[in-house]
Design brief:
This protein is an alpha+beta fold and 425 residues long. The chain contains 7 helices and 22 strands.
């Protein structure tokens, strides 16, 4: 179709002006609606002390802007709560007091009164509605009383936090990301000494889920700070049951979790792993993370790293001795060291004579099966002589007692073997 002045139908300046006017009208209407509901909340001298009158005033406040979603909320609230006589007169007086405190603070209908009504709809669905109502309102009322200036964000955070917490004990609920919850125990909502809302758990289980995977901390205690999404925990235990090994476990001391994230660390834990350490737990650090199946098919979490890098392990396999640090990542065990102080593997013949020694920063160990490593400084002993090399790839089959030693193609791997028996390189 031909155009005038080189402009198409949707490129004319006239249409652009019309669209700008439409946008302006939409913004103006939205502003008027919000301002009107805000003005109603702020202009009242007080809410009526007559419960029926108060109920009507509250409905009028929320439906003043003629917003369909709010009209539906008021309709549902009336049918579920008011018409059924869910709350006692004393409880309605508490509700009226909360609304009055919001009015005195000049808080808008959206989101504060709306969020409050959503919470009020939940209490009748809980196992102990009266206790939940009283405990929650104790926190909400004190928070409203302690507002400084126009700092309403903590109130809004409490109102959005409360529905998933009351119905599912969620500390953080994100449908597309990590969800943290108290899976066992009785968490309590309260205010700390600074007046901030916190959840306190004494001896319970903490659980995080994402994309089909989950991690848990059993028998822990702690405090969750709503405004920071921060959990500060003490005690508890994490095990390897996701891999069918609940007997492998870490006992936590103090730790923190940023619950926006899907992982956490603990600086000081003790590991019980009787397969390698039958004499008792060892100390170290710990970290855990949620993975989807597609992200982590090999299982590299939970992770533990020992503080001690001079541990002696004698039960890796017959004739195998290890000295160094101990690390476990998911299903894989590593012996580790450093460049200056590498880990050491010694392999002995059936008559107890040392046949092989290897030094490396890391050995992958499967008890009774195999040992593997890259960049091993290796020595094979023949009576009083030896064959050595500064950088080999090692694979040792424990059951078959066979070695696979190969030179690395780069760096020290290109150096020749040193044979003291034949006195040759």
């Amino acid at each position: 179709m031909a155009t005038r002045g080189g402009l198409g139908l949707f490129g004319s300046s006239k249409n652009t002006e019309i669209m700008n006017v439409v946008r302006l009208v939409v913004i103006l209407i939205a502003t008027i609606v919000i301002a009107h509901s805000s003005a109603l909340a702020q202009s009242r001298d007080t809410f009526s002390t007559s419960i029926p009158s108060f109920q009507e005033e509250l409905s009028e406040l929320l439906t003043a802007g003629k917003r369909e979603v709010l009209e539906q909320l008021v309709k549902d609230f009336r049918e579920e709560i008011i018409d059924r006589g869910v709350y006692t007169e004393d409880q309605w007086m508490v509700i009226r007091e909360m609304a009055e405190r919001m009015r005195l603070r000049k808080m808008n209908a959206d989101p504060y009164y709306i969020g409050y009504l959503e919470v009020l709809r939940l209490f009748p669905t809980l196992a102990d509605p009266a206790t939940a109502f009283n405990d929650w309102h104790e926190v909400f009322g004190r928070m409203l009383q302690g507002i400084e200036g126009n700092r309403f964000q903590p109130v809004q955070r409490l109102l959005t936090f409360s529905p998933p917490f009351l119905t599912g004990q969620f500390l953080r609920l994100n449908e597309l990301n990590t969800r943290w919850s108290v899976s066992s125990g009785s968490p309590r909502l309260q205010l700390d000494s600074s007046g901030s809302a916190v959840v306190v758990l004494e001896e319970g289980d903490l659980k995080a889920t994402r994309l089909g995977d989950s991690i848990q901390i059993f028998g822990t205690s702690g405090t969750f700070q709503l405004e920071e999404d921060l959990w500060s925990g003490t005690g508890g235990q994490v095990d390897w049951r996701r891999y069918g090994n609940p007997e492998i476990a870490c006992a936590l001391n103090g730790y923190q979790i940023d619950m926006v994230r899907s992982f956490y660390t603990a600086d000081s834990v003790t590991l019980t792993h009787l397969k390698y350490f039958p004499d008792g737990p060892i100390s170290g650090s710990f970290e855990d993370k949620i993975f989807s199946v597609s992200e982590d098919s090999t299982g590299s979490y939970p992770r533990f790293t020992s503080f001690d890098q001079q541990l002696s392990i004698e039960n890796i396999g017959q004739g195998v001795a290890f000295q160094g640090g101990f690390r476990i990542q998911g299903t894989t065990v590593y012996g580790y060291g450093s460049r200056r102080d590498p880990a050491r593997i010694d392999i002995f013949s059936t008559d107890g004579v040392r046949a092989f020694s290897g030094l490396s920063e890391s050995f992958a160990i499967r008890q009774g099966e195999r040992i593997g490593s890259r960049d091993v400084e290796a020595s094979i002993y023949l009576a009083q002589d030896s064959i050595s090399h500064p950088s080999l790839n090692l694979r040792y089959d424990i059951a078959q007692k066979t070695f696979d030693l190969r030179r690395n193609p780069d760096g020290n791997g290109r150096n020749p073997f040193l044979d003291t028996y034949h006195q040759v390189n």
